[in-house]
Design brief:
The chain is of the alpha/beta class. The chain folds into two domains: 252 residues, Aldolase class I (TIM Barrel, Alpha-Beta Barrel); 74 residues, Up-down Bundle (Four Helix Bundle (Hemerythrin (Met), subunit A)), CATH 1.20.120.1460. Helices cover 41% and strands 12% of the residues. Helix 7 links the parallel strand 5 and strand 6. The structure holds flavin mononucleotide.
Amino acid sequence: MCVPVVEPRALACSLKARAGGWKMKDVERLFCVAPMMDWTDRHCRAFHRALTRHALLYTEMLTADAVLHGDRERLLGFSQIEHPLALQLGGSDPAKIAEASRIAAALGYDEINLNIGCPSDRVQAGRFGACLMREPDLVAALWTAAQGAAPAIPVTIKCRIGVDEQEPREALFALVDKASAEGCGTFIVHARKAWLSGLSPKENRDVPPLDYDLVRTLKRERPDLKIILNGGLRDLDHALAESAGLDGAMLGRAAYQNPASLLEVDARVFGATPPSTSRIEAVERHIPYIETMLARGVPLHAMTRHILGLFNAQPGGRAWRRVLSEQAVRAGAEVQVVRTALAQVSLRTQQAA
Ligand SMILES: Cc1cc2nc3c(=O)[nH]c(=O)nc-3n(C[C@H](O)[C@H](O)[C@H](O)COP(=O)(O)O)c2cc1C
């Protein structure tokens, strides 16, 4: 079975499923926006598409149980403009992960990613996320189950470099070697440990020290694998510098908090024309999406909360934020609020020129 590539990609990479040597859908991961709970929902991702066509976007983590038993349209629905799009799954039961993967592939996701990095108590109680760094055999079984159920799209793993007392080189290599022996070809490595007791999830994104060198060592010693660097990358320059020699970089907080940085990604990373040439143009490009969603009953603030940071440190940035924060939360708020905020930015930009 051969799945055609949906969109032309500047640097298409060809992945082969081990079983049967099928050609899979190509997914380019030179630049990815990280999965972030409560942040990278569909409205955020649609907005990011006004800034970059080629970055690979990830959903928030969904548990396999939620995929199986939850409201599928609400949890899994996405717009076609969001491609290429990866669904991140969390779980520790291979049968459930397999079923969730089958559903995701049927819905048209371009990749499934397994979460082996989340340190929250809730996730630990479900015996998944970062605590699976201690169970490479189970991770390999989860990967095999997912890939077997969704053979036409790649299944990737996002992991840490270890947890608690683990020795990072041993823990990371053990996990990667077990999963790659089953055929997993792509690993996104958040280059710090998770400390499972004593730190909040937020602290676990900052406190354990970063070790980019270990990720580069992994690539050097396992050159056939695709290794994507994540964690603490401040901006595109930093990401490109630290991921040299690797297969890509994934940005989380920097991309969300400074979305304008995504305007540079298509040209600098993919050698392609960006969808918008300026912040203002990106908003104009995003407005039809907002109108469509308003017509479907989505409240305006559910969309504008993701665009608040677009004009940070720019003329009119404060007015943009103020108009949106004050007016988009009002009942029945319409897209005119966004236009009003944009007019403030245009005015301040002209005044500053
Ligand atoms: C608000 C928030 C929610 C997150 N949710 C997830 C998640 O659902 N799945 C996951 O693998 N990582 C999650 N992360 C971690 C990020 O994907 C990323 O690994 C981490 O923030 C480090 O990258 P950064 O320094 O570029 O932000 C989350 C991070 C943030 C800030």
